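User: what does the whole thing look like in 3D?
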Amino acid sequence: MSDRPSEVSHLDLETPEKPYLDSNELIINMGPQHPATHGVLRVILKLDGEKVLGTECVIGYLHRGVEKIAENRTYTMFNPYVDRMDYCAAVSNGLGYCEAVEKLMNVEAPPRAQYIRVILTELNRIASHQLWLGTHALDIGAMTPLFYTFRDREEILKIFEKYCGARLTTHAFRIGGCQYETYAGFEKDVQSFLTFFAPKIDEYEALLTTNRIWLERTRNVGVISGADCIALGVTGPVLRASGVKWDVRKAQPYANYSKFDFEIPVGTNGDTYDRYLVRMQEMRQSMRIIEQAVAGIPEGPIMGKVPKVIKPPVGEIYHSIEAPKGELGYFIVSDGSTQPYRLRVRPPSFVNLQALDVMVRGLLVADVVAVIGTIDIVLGEVDR
Amino acid sequence: MLTSFMSYLGSTLTPGSAGNQLWALIYVLIIFAGVSVTVICMNWLERKALAHFQVRLGPMRVGPHGLLQPIADALKLMLKEDIIPAEADQFVFWVAPLIGLLAAFTVYTVIPFGPSQAVSDMNIGILFMLGVSSLGVLGIVVAGWASNSHYPLIGALRSSAQMVSYEVAMGLAVVSAILMTSMNVSGTGTLSMIGIVQAQQQQGIWFIFKFFPLGFIAFAIFAVAMVAEVNRAPFDLAEAESELTAGFHTEYSGLRWSLFMLAEYAAMIAVSAIAVTLWLGGWMRPFPNLLHATAWDFIFSLFPGLTFGCLAAIAFIGTVRMPSHSFFKIQRIGLAAFAALLGFIALFLLLIAVVAGLSADTSLVARFNQGIGYVYWFVLKVAVFMYLFIWYRATWPRYRFDQLMRVGWKVLLPISLGVLILTAVVGVIVS
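Assistant: Here's the predicted 3D structure for the full assembly of 815 residues, as structure tokens:
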């Protein structure tokens, strides 16, 4: 493993020995109001001309103290809060939280609920990747994919809306199963989405995958090795694009993912283009999972045997799932009361963002936005 | 006195060559107003076309199908607070957009819309155009510098490097076109823009097809370099929105900002006009030598009217398809009136063409073609380029700075040099 991560240090922004005007170096603030930092990320860039000498991420502009709020809410009351962390993948957040509490209470959701959960979570993964693709392409200068992806994402949001009334912050699951039975025609809607969406991925790929400018802008940009990824705790598509085959769905199967036949796409170079390809493949694999889940969805109850007042036994639990952006973990300490004693979220965006500095050193300003896009961060999750 | 005045007016239609200042002034006014109006139309067209590329509708609210949107935009920009940052160099900040605008508009003095429809027939027209259009970069650099801010500075540096490098390839491509003008009996070429089109007329071929594929390659190089020259996607690094927020005009607002936009679009039209003049036969209609019978002249003289007829039909279909809610009543009336206006123009043009075609005097059709046909074909060719600009923007991601430089210096420059040499060699062999 190289020693690069240890180089991640604070920029000496105010070194007294330096002359007042260093004509070679330029320090610019990218954000918090900037079109390409995906919200309120602030990156302080140290530049030599256009070359990036170092970066420093300043975060916290969207800090809401979600973890602290959890200590003052009952387990049920806190459930909607997790939707507001990664608001592009609210369903995944809810799944992780519900499963963590279920594990703590030692209950399990009934099979039908598990299937519904998998379908919705994988739909959400596609929606999240679509949002990533659109904004990432926009950062690199291709405007049109954004509108295509948002057009198609709408179909997923419609399914969410029909299922639980909300489009973005869905609060789709409850501790112990699902609140709502599927609506009439749910399976048909999901099926028709799959047939609708398959050619759309090809459409995105036609615009980008072999586009010369896209290749030049993404190949060998933001390269990170698998070892570096592991050292920094990077997970998700970024890790897999670097050649490490780690997906929580396969490595530590949760929900009922072990029942489905799907593959984990991995890259080789760990550059922006590989991450793009991995995510495109993941969308196709998600479609495979949804197809199997819709075909095999059983009848039965959707809520497990959960008491009205949720009071997990004294203990602690760490449970992680594969969110669209990486490993999303919940660490919950219970003191036996109705409220968690401590709740800690391991957000993939926050951990992955650490890799930014390693990835962009020595590249150009234009690559910084490309790399921010390729890491796929959501500031709601970074800051919590 | 009246007779001398009348003879002064009739002295010549190309003012530059005879020094008829009155006609020159009138042409300048027409071109200035025409280009400004075209820029406003382009604003609407770009937003509409881009929107349809991107499965959305674009402006729909201000006027029928957003037809009045550019006017609303212009009004808004004029009424906005004019901010000059406290740290900026006030005078330079003030003068920068004017430099850009001046450079963009001055190019039009040599652009021939027809053999006599030009402000001036400068004998060094193409040199003048290359020189003036490269002044445009000065406005951008000065704007970036005067803003006294980091993003504009980076944008300005990028654009100066970019424009300077692409001008080299562009210039070489232009030279190979100029070489082709000397393929006549006397062996003398010309730098005059009107002369270049006339050379294509005499040789009976558009220079894009001359010495195939040499002419085409030179044209292609120019077509790429001109996109870089006017800072449009995929070479819009100077204002790269996602990287530099707005590049060199980050600190500009209101009217000053709109002057930059005006300059950018005027420059787009200008470079397209140059490409049309040099390679696509300028004002000539397609196949002027092959299909030169009187009947063909008549058929081609119908095109302007038919084009307006098509536009009128589109507007009319839009009127019919509008929702039948009373909310849309005024909009429908407006669009119908617009369709009627276009239809009247179409009918008028068709009427003149048909009357000229049916009359015994065959010179009438030729006069119609000279008066309206030349400008029509020129504008049509330019319009194709303008559409391409929008299409590029909808399709391609943005190049990175170093890649842009590599394309400019390592790809375009050697190819254009090679084409230039080959053109010279082939020219010598053929003559």
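In plain terms: Chain B is about 70% helix and 0% strand. Residues 90-284+400-430 of chain B form one domain.
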